[in-house]
Amino acid sequence: MHSINEPTGTTVRLPDEARAAVADALGSPSGLGAALPDTDAGAYLAHGAKLLRNCLPPQTLDALASWRREPTPWLTLTNLPEQGSDVPTPQDGFCDESLVTLPNLVHFGLLRLLGLTPVAYRWENDGRLIRNVAPRAEAARTNTSWGYARPLDWHTDDSVLEHGPHATATEAIPHYLSFYGVRNTEGVPTGQLPVDAVLAALAPETAEALRRPEFAVSAPESYRAGDDGRPAARTAVPLLWTLPDGRTGLRYGPGLARGLTAEAGAALAAFEAVLAGMDGAPVLIGAGGFHVFDNRRVMHRRVPFTPAAAGRARWLRRCYALGPVAAGGRPAPRPAR
Ligand SMILES: O=C(O)CCC(=O)C(=O)O
Ligand SMILES: [Fe+2]
Known about the structure:
Blueprint: E1 3-5, E2 9-13, H1 16-27, H2 41-55, H3 58-69, E3 74-78, H4 101-113, E4 117-119, E5 131-133, E6 152-155, E7 176-183, E8 190-194, H5 195-200, H6 204-210, E9 215-218, E10 233-237, E11 240-242, E12 248-250, E13 257-259, H7 262-276, E14 281-283, E15 290-294, E16 298-302, E17 315-322
Parallel strand pairs: 2-3
Antiparallel strand pairs: 1-2, 3-15, 4-17, 5-17, 6-16, 7-15, 7-17, 8-14, 8-16, 9-10, 9-13, 11-12
Helix pairs in contact: 1-2, 2-4, 6-7
The structure holds 2-oxoglutaric acid and fe (ii) ion (FE2).
The site of 2-oxoglutaric acid has 9 residues, from β16.
């Protein structure tokens, strides 16, 4: 089977025989000019999607189209073209984007084929679309994607943002996290835990209490300090809510949520006790891998690790994305490819 659908996620491997043609098509692109993702994301979305449509085998395009119609909690693609070893892993969190055209074309092209829109937040990552998830010595012990010495426990990203269906793109909790793997020789997985699995282990009255707007949430360490416009905290919000498609969404970061009533505090403690015992599924995003998951339906985590030598350490490229939401908060009809 080319694509494996599991109750949790979908895994698709680009067939070996297609790999050389895909690497050729994406390795020598023309028509991008001097565009970079942050100056012209549209160019990468359009150009990447066009190249991928022309070179991916029909069964791979079909697998992407069916995930787009009916998204499972996550989608993993493997065996995609890799960035060569010539570009070192950034040591300070940022890199020259003109050196990583191939990762950007794969990443943005796949987002477009999946019907997802990249989004960046002005108070995070210098407002850039691509976050280099790579170890940074000064951030070693922080709870950020640049840390590595301490566990990054089960969480959803940007839980302090707006969860409702009418949130504007720049204030909405990111619907999706997408990653392209440049290298991961340390073999450090990204843990995935569907919210439904947590709900199944929770007492119904706990879930009910988590749905009440009786919580305060604060911003993670990765938010820039002292920026007036940043949503540093939000109060009277629920931790669980119903998404437009009827599924249950979650916002949660360890140490970032607080119950405003005794009942809310007890429900949060019960939730955290259940969470502490959950294993989830490890997904290895390796070189030439792409992974996307719903940040409201799936929690994620990363174990501590020892980075490989400077310039050769684990390097994932992350981009937040929004799904199609039409006016009125209902999911837009998903257009044909
Ligand atoms: O390093 C990872 O696998 C995930 C890091 C993380 O939590 C994130 O990028 O939001
Ligand atoms: Fe995260």
